[in-house]
């Protein structure tokens, strides 16, 4: 069995960062008795549970990279798929790929395998900053999609968002995502672990009050505010789509087909929002509770709770491709063609047909 780190004895104003997405978990102990108890327990994790964790993290990382990569390819390879909504979906996929490449593997390696930060001070800053950026990009892209759907359905007589406007909005999303968590990059530093040559990647604040208010502001901006906006927009959309006819909509077969198409798209995006909410809720709840009562981190099984919450949050990076494949016929057909392309030998003739031509038939 291997030992999972439970924190370190650091300066009172230093917050030990367990390299999760955007917040620090305060693992410094309240008193010596807690330290002694944890040292006796040594927080050993059975090898079977470690293997299960390896499999869980590796699975979501590979699924996120592969699934979102295919989503990007489907949209960019077929001109008919290059719609405003699909541009936002590609941007969402890019954010999830960034999460899968930078956040999941390093968090997994540092917390479960090594128990320290071996990658140097520069990459400590890059890593913690990139995690926050990727979460902001995903959250605000979901808002951009909801605004696009809101305008299209609630105000159908207004001009639709153009592709240029969509690209400018995507640029604005990334600008906000890059600027908002800049303090995280500034305060992220390496701190010696228990007076050894091992280091932890931490956020070092002048006072705990600064850390608390920044943490609350960050969580509000990247989870609670997007959640409120998404609930408002999709509630209004659902009332219009399922509750009454869109203003100016006639009663004929063509309009029935358009209404059905709108409902399918809205259902898919509501499912994406629901996945975002449910995946991130446990970790955010744990972090809020920890900020109000740091003593919860002395619980003997807190590491299992943290890993469960963290894994669920990370798993959101691979959820959306499954949702698209399940709820959208065009994406489902695109995934099917891609899998056929790579699953059959050249003798079957699949490799002689370009993926672009296959997707063009979707």
Question: Features of this protein?
Answer:
single chain; 362 residues; mainly alpha; Rhopdopsin 7-helix transmembrane proteins; 3-stranded antiparallel β-sheet; two-stranded antiparallel sheet; globular; disordered N terminus; disordered C terminus; transmembrane; cell membrane; transducer; receptor
In brief, what are we looking at here?
With 362 residues, the protein is mainly alpha-helical. It has helices at 32-41, 47-77, 84-114, 121-154, 163-179, 182-187, 208-243, 253-292, 302-315, 319-327, 329-343, 355-360, and strands at residues 2-3, 14-15, 44-45, 188-192, 199-204.
Summarize the topology:
Blueprint: E1 2-3, E2 14-15, H1 32-41, E3 44-45, H2 47-77, H3 84-114, H4 121-154, H5 163-179, H6 182-187, E4 188-192, E5 199-204, H7 208-243, H8 253-292, H9 302-315, H10 319-327, H11 329-343, H12 355-360
Antiparallel strand pairs: 1-3, 2-5, 4-5
Helix pairs in contact: 2-3, 2-9, 2-10, 3-4, 3-5, 4-5, 4-7, 4-8, 7-8, 8-9, 8-10, 10-11
Task: Give a structural overview.
The strands form two sheets. This protein has a three-stranded antiparallel β-sheet with strand order 2-5-4. Residues 1-43, 349-356 and 358-362 have low confidence and may be disordered. The chain has helices spanning 32-41, 47-77, 84-114, 121-154, 163-179, 182-187, 208-243, 253-292, 302-315, 319-327, 329-343, 355-360, and strands spanning 2-3, 14-15, 44-45, 188-192, 199-204. The radius of gyration is 23 Å and the shape is globular. It is mainly α.
